[in-house]
Write a structure and sequence with these properties.
The chain has 156 residues and is of the alpha+beta class. It is built from 5 helices and 7 strands; from the N terminus they run H-H-H-E-E-E-H-E-E-E-E-H.
Length: 156
């Protein structure tokens, strides 16, 4: 089950990724920060693709992914929100204040959650995702708390 989640998360990230920001993601988010936010132990992070780092919980189902990618002209979390609502009308999308220029949280299942935020300098989008959460509230709390830690470092 966990292997399938890893594959799905990697495929989704691959399909959505563009040219990644030249930023060392292992310095953008650390294993210690992921562990502090989740209260769980994690394996070292790995980079399945450029612009993405992932962490897998030791002996558990939680998987955390952080991505930073350049945004195309006209692309924003709001354009992604419109696409998401067309693809999955039942998906709940919420505005999140205090992260980047504009940020949204969305989920299609109780154990999944993703927060995407737009940044202007440089023009990138950061996404923090979780799979394997015990509840929808836990998924939202994890990605929101981790995005608040990571967001201020984007582009630095």
């Amino acid at each position: 089950m966990v292997g399938r989640k890893v594959l799905v998360a990697t495929l989704i990230a691959f399909a959505l990724s563009g040219s990644a920001l030249a930023q060392d993601l292992s310095k953008l988010v650390t294993k210690a920060e992921v562990e502090k936010v989740t209260g769980a132990k994690f394996k070292d992070g790995w980079k399945p693709m450029e612009g993405q780092i992932m962490f897998q919980q030791e002996g558990g189902d939680l998987q955390i992914s952080v991505e930073v990618e350049k945004r195309d002209t006209g692309a924003s979390v709001r354009s992604w929100e419109a696409t998401m609502k067309k693809m999955q009308p039942a998906a709940k999308v919420e505005t999140v204040k205090g992260i980047g220029g504009d940020a949204i949280y969305y989920s299609t299942r109780a154990d999944l959650g993703k927060l995407s935020a737009d940044f202007e300098k440089p023009r990138v989008q950061m996404s923090v995702a979780v799979a394997g959460a015990k509840t929808a509230a836990q998924a939202k709390q994890i990605v929101t708390d981790l995005a608040k830690v990571v967001g201020p470092r984007v582009g630095k």
